[in-house]
Amino acid sequence: MNNLKLVKIRKVNKSAIHKYSLFLVLFGCVLTLASCLKKDVFPASGTPNEYISILDVRKIYKGADVVLNTSNMDGADKITGVVVSDATSGNIPPGVFAIQQTSRTLKRGIEVSVTQATNIPYKIGDSVVVNVNGATITRNKGALQIHVSSIERVTKVAENRLAEPTLVSLETLNEKFDDYEGTLIKIANVDAAGDVMQGDVVITEPTGSTGILHTEPTATFADKAVALNASYTAVARWNSDADDTHRKQLWIVNADGIEDESGRIYTGFPESFESGEAALFVDGYSTKTGNFSTGNYTLQNIYVGNTANDLPVTGQYALRLVGSSATSSWCTMNYDLPNGATKVTVWAGSYGASADLGSTWRLEYSQDQGITWSQVGEDILTISKVKKQFTFLMDLRGPVRFRIGKIGIGNSTTNNQNGRFSMDDFAVYKNPEAGGPITNPVPEYATVLGWQFGTPATAGNEVSKTSTTTHAGLSNAVLERGPGLTASSLVRSFASTAGGTIITSTKALALSQDVYYQVKFIVQSGYKLSLSAINVKLRRSAAGARNHKWYYSLDGVNFHETLGTGDMSYEGTDTEGTEMPAYYIYQTSELQNIPAGTTVTLRMYCWGFSNIGSGSFSIGRTPAGTATDVLSIGGSLSQ
Questions:
Q1: N vs C: which end of the chain shows fewer Cβ within 10 Å?
Q2: Model pLDDT for residues 283-339, shown as the tens digit of each residue
Q3: What is the pLDDT of residue 432?
Q4: What does pLDDT average to over the chain?
């Protein structure tokens, strides 16, 4: 029995020893592993980052003041960002500047308040580093700020860095104001009510969402009149009222932060192309005419698309203009808006398919029910597939209609980008019906030079023609043709057909082949000249030029495009000719305050001929038996 017990005990002890041995082995491994881990506690940490992002430093504030240090900033002691406020404008509290930074794809901003500093030496676009160790993050009168003890805590490391505002709607801004606080934002094309900018001005967007623009009495633009509609670039700030109620405000960065001033948007706009007659939504690029929500339109080489690549701004649809075509594409209004226009906006981009290159497009207007069209600004090459909002400013009085499109320039290549074009949300803004500044108003002007061909009647093929109306402050002006035009007979006009060796179908060919009409004159001693507009009556045949553009030179050698009016288009064939809309040149700075003794040369380049020799393009015709000007140059002279 005892032996059995002893054996049994031994068996028990062997098992225990085995278990104990296994425990020791495992324990040893754990110790070994532990010792290995201890040697590599921070294998990839390196030196703690000395910078904390603005995104993260904002999170440290949780409703009460916090002294920043390396412990609560995970070893960091500095922040960095780009300055987005302008101390010189007077519309930021003294001693305060705002910076913004993008971290982990998120843009965030914060204000820096410098104790006892009134003069902030930093400007928009300066890149700065701020030592915030020991500084306090707090809300001062609503605004989240970091208070630093002295300006020596701030170091400028670069300048002229991109300080781009974020384009945001008031609706989104109000929903996520904390995300935008301290950053530079842009609110585009909103209505405003008020007399001058000083104080709080309520702005409203078409959706009905509102916001508050704030302007300090010290601001350089405090006395500026409030525009009926405009775009604003500002720093988003919480600001406390007297009762300590925090308010969302937009502090305009400076006078340049007020732009795109205009009248109010026409009722019903923007046109989003979401609803309309079935004829407009037929597949393909065939010409279609019908009613959208704002009126009747003709779509030429345009498809109303709702695929993923159409990328509509609102709703499901956007207009898609055909690519790689020699035929032009147009979205044309077939109705007039009664109160003129001061601004047009449209969202535009290239079509979303990866194979599509960029697209060149333009905006044109007509004030004679679509008989003639004038370009606003210059052609725009759009490469981005993400639509952007484009703004065109103007001062058009009286009924007006618009068209947006692209000229047919053939196959799309890297050197001739003619891919599909996409547009959405097109809007027109009135000329102010009451009050509000107008951007670039047309100055008062009178005829300083004029030509009539009725009394006595011209044959049309004269080599040149001297002005029949001439201001005393100018020499007689001479009208003549460039080498690319051939004189032709047409009574009561100054007539031509296309010359050259190549059919003048494009502007480039008109420039290279000297296809132009020219006027040359001298400003007389004791006078100073400012030019405002050119009015001309044109007569063309079916094969004649369809487009023209005025250029200028003050040295007779170097010619430049005039500013204010783009290429003009006219396809009518009235045998007596048609008055073109006024061709404004008052925005061409070199044609303002031209000194005495200067020789001024104006050239009207013309193109769009369909043959050589028979296509007629003439100035005129003066009505029979009258002395009515058919070419006049408007401006003012001072002594």
A1: N
A2: 999 999 999 999 999 999 999 999 999 999 999 999 999 999 988 999 999 999 988
A3: 73
A4: 89
- ∠ at Cα 236 (233, 241), nearest 5°? 125
What pLDDT score does 584 carry? 87
- What does the block give as tokens for 205? 């967007």
Q: Could you give the residue ranges of the DSSP H alpha helices within 81-183?
A: 170-175, 177-180
CA distance 126 to 81: 8
Percent of the chain with pLDDT over 90: 74
For residue 634, what are its two tokens?
């408007």
The CA-atom distances, in angstroms, between 298 and each of 266, 281, 289 are 20, 12, 4
- How many CB atoms neighbour CB 109 within 10 A? 27
Quick one: three-class SS letters along 451-469? ECCECCECCCCCCEEECCE
Q: Which run of H or of E encompasses 146?
A: strand 143-148
Q: What is the DSSP letter of 279?
A: G
579 closest CA partner among 336, 365, 371, 341? 371
User: Which residues is 184 bridged to in the sheet?
Assistant: 235
Q: How confident is the model at residue 240 (pLDDT cuts 50, 70, 90)?
A: confident
As given in the structure block, the two tokens for residue 447 are: 């005829």
State in words which class domain 278-429 has: mainly beta
**CA distance to 62, 68, 183, 542, per residue, from 65 (Å):** 8, 9, 21, 78
Q: What ranges do the domains of the chain cover?
A: 54-158, 278-429, 446-638
Query: Contact at 8 Å (CB) between 248 and 211?
Result: yes
Pairwise CA distance, residues 587 & 427, whole Å: 24
Nearest to 440 by CA among 485, 399, 408, 395: 395
pLDDT band for position 46 (cuts 50, 70, 90)? low
Paired strand residues for 229: 191, 262
Count CA atoms within 13 Å of residue 534 on its CB side: 27
Q: How far apart are CA 56 and CA 135, in angstroms?
A: 15
Q: Quote the CA–CA distance of 567 and 549 in Å, as a whole number.
A: 5
Residue 516's DSSP bridge partners are 605
Predicted local confidence at residue 47, as pLDDT? 62
Is 446-638 the same fold as 278-429? Answer: yes
> Quick one: 54-158 is in which CATH superfamily?
Nucleic acid-binding proteins (2.40.50.140)
Backbone CA torsion sign across 295, 396, 621, 586: negative
CATH topology of domain 446-638: Jelly Rolls (2.60.120)
Tokens encoding 148: 């630093």
